[in-house]
Amino acid sequence: MPSLQIARVRHHPAGYDEKFELHVPLGTLGALLREESCNVFSVELGLRTAFAALWRKFGRNRRLIVHADLSEATERGRGYARLLLRRLLLRHVDRVLVNGASGARYLQTLGCPPDRIGRLPYASDIAHFQWIPDLPAHADNEGPLRLLYVGRLVEVKGLVPFLDRLANALRARPRQRVSLTLVGDGDLAAAIDAVDCPANLTVQRIGAIPYEQVPDHYARADVVVMPSLGDTWGLCVNEAMASGRPVLGSVGAQAVDELVIDGVTGWRFDMQAPLTLDNAIARMLASTPAERAALGRNARRTAADFSPERIAVRIIDAFQHTRGLPPISEAIPPATEPAVSVAGPRRAARLSGSARPPT
Questions:
Q1: What is the pTM of this model?
Q2: Domain limits at 53?
Q3: Would 324 be classed as within a structural domain?
Q4: Domain boundary residue, one of 303, 326, 347
Q5: Which of 121, 195, 236, 268 has the most CB atoms around it within 10 Å of its CB?
């Protein structure tokens, strides 16, 4: 389908630059007019969805569902013209699917009724990672604590400020050794190499690798880190948890906000509040192998509900909802079991709510 692509750079209020492409979908309207289906699934609240809304308006039995891949963190500082377009579009769609609660709150600020909003989080092929053994409850205390990051080495991922705070924490703990492996590439590589790290913190950049090799790195990790300043989701969180690894993550990534329960499946922090990062790092460094193993088992159970098959069912349910039909997901039993906080039974939590968003 022909489209015009315009390269743009947006300066986010959180202090990072975001490169993106503005797409002008030249062939969308013609394709929709030739489409015989009564159901259309569109992505994003842009021109493509505007054409789909026009198609929807002139058909009595047509339904339009939109996946809004956004969050409060990513949408801060958007311009007036974009906000106006989104407000208008939301009046002419049958249902909007968001990744998590943050996306839902953002849409409600634009006037979208809560009963028109559903959940469609991202999913990864969890079978690709389920072969990885659980963390041992009694690890070798002589080796370093092995941290892993998987993703692009770009400013929005918050790696440089995270490394600075981790380095400071380890200067105060000279006897504790930590290794951080970075899998991925990007224009922040030189800045990462320039971070002043103490002798007890080693940082290794692997670079980009084939996807088939990624599970091997999860298998060698004790904790997976995700210090994002703003991500609409963050699939490495799904992958880490499917691998049975706890996540040390920033709520700027919506996957962390939805899947990581503090003290149950990992440790949460806010990159905009450095003291919360320091606290999360300190708790992670003080954790025992047995505690990390328990977090990892809880994480694996959480990830089981986020398979591609289960997420696909949510799209079908959304169209069922627009036509007043019962959801097919009611016939599918939940994949999770109760998980217990490592802090004790009084903080036991069932993996529901933010850990398993409702349809």
A1: 0.86
A2: 4-119
A3: no
A4: 303
A5: 236
